[in-house]
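Entry 14. Ran structure prediction on the chain below.
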Amino acid sequence: METVNRKPFVAGQFYPENLDSLSKMLKGYCIKDVQKNILGALVPHAGYIYSGEVAGKVYSLLKPKKYYIILGPNHSGYGPRFSLFPEGSWITPLGSVKISSSLIKKIITIGKNIEIDTSAHMHEHSIEVQLPFLQYTQNNFEIVALSLSDATLGQYQKLAEDLFTATKDNTENIAIIASSDMSHYVPHEVASEKDKKIIDSIVAIDPEDTYRNVSKYNVSMCGYGPCVVMLFFAKLAGAKKGELISYQTSAKTSRDYSSVVGYAGIAIS
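Output, structure tokens:
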């Protein structure tokens, strides 16, 4: 298996590329809180000035884990449906993050529909923007980076089962993170109303209901797939409680309430 060191693609756009500026921004978002043994989480992936406050509140709660499986939607359309980044590392202004070679070898052996691929990841921001938060709040961790395209509910459930089977010996040392923004480019009131229906399903740890409600209520949630897989995985890992940590829309920053994007931070434990 080839080793790939992925350089940052959206540093300087979604977040500062200058180390000091980035560290100062993260310090403002990641306020120390009572840490929880979180099994899964939903976090947004927009530019930090819009969604960093929501993401930071979730990452501030994370009790340190050795491994993080990060699921992001595939915005570019490149690569296979379930694209697993190979051995190597992801680089950010805060340094490099190691890919867990031991976990990806197990995952690729068990997950027959999961393919090693870099094309889905190289120009994708949804996973990259999570890493500085982890680097700022955690130490000595490794990641698995998996990019997801649209799939059926059954395919997402099978993916979650394969991920759990491959990692169940390390369940206590693993958290799974789903990267997703909520409603896109609708009025603030519409986003808030629609997003609440999905948030309620997520907090109830109901992947089936979450999947159906995205379509039923026409919610333009870009990472519904990663969220559904995260919920299936967390249930297998014994999750009992979902909690909305924070919700806001881009209007808080832009002051434009006519067309917003919604951001939710949710912890599953």
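The chain has a mean pLDDT of 97. Will compare against last week's run tomorrow.
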